[in-house]
Write a structure and sequence with these properties.
34% helix, alpha+beta, 3-stranded antiparallel sheet, 4-stranded antiparallel sheet, 2 domains, 24% strand, Arc Repressor Mutant, subunit A
Amino acid sequence: MPSAWREPYHVVLEIENKQCKMVKKLGTLGLKHLKVVDVRSSTRGSVKHLMDLGVEQAKKVPKDLSPKCIEGKSAVWMESEGCEVCNTILSHDAFLVSGKSLTDNMILYSFIVPTFEAYQAILVELEKSNHKFYVRKIGKFEQQIGILTENQERVFWLALKSGFFDYPRQIDLTNLSKKLGISPATLSEIMRRGTRRLLEHYFRQEL
């Protein structure tokens, strides 16, 4: 595991974001009552938004904005270069886990940063750009009961927080390994050995 991820943090910020480019772009099409259901970073450096528009409004979205728009669905995935808030978070080696609207301009962002310094730098930049925000949650990785090695436990913590174990997954093995700066094979092996340790501990009475 690269040293940059030795002390990762999971952060949840409530941020007033009046500059969401996707909301503005849809607003120019006359679409109203837009809701950001989810925000995720992509491997291409752009930002993906899951926008709930309502079934009727979703029909009006041009195919070039949402080529995978499904008939009868109210929420559509759309991709953009990201707004100031998203890019501030992503510029410090952090990665977005999710984001969702609370009110018209308030969005709840969940993300993981490699260090406390990266977290502080994000807050400083948000303050400089006059964004109002509230820290809902910040949690540091801390090794627990010692069944796993520290490295294995850190990897499982990062995988859990980033949505690797969600259904459907929010991030796959390849993209998670890129975020952490290791190969997919290395990440897979760390998780395989860690899973074996957990199972051996769980079934220790039968071994």
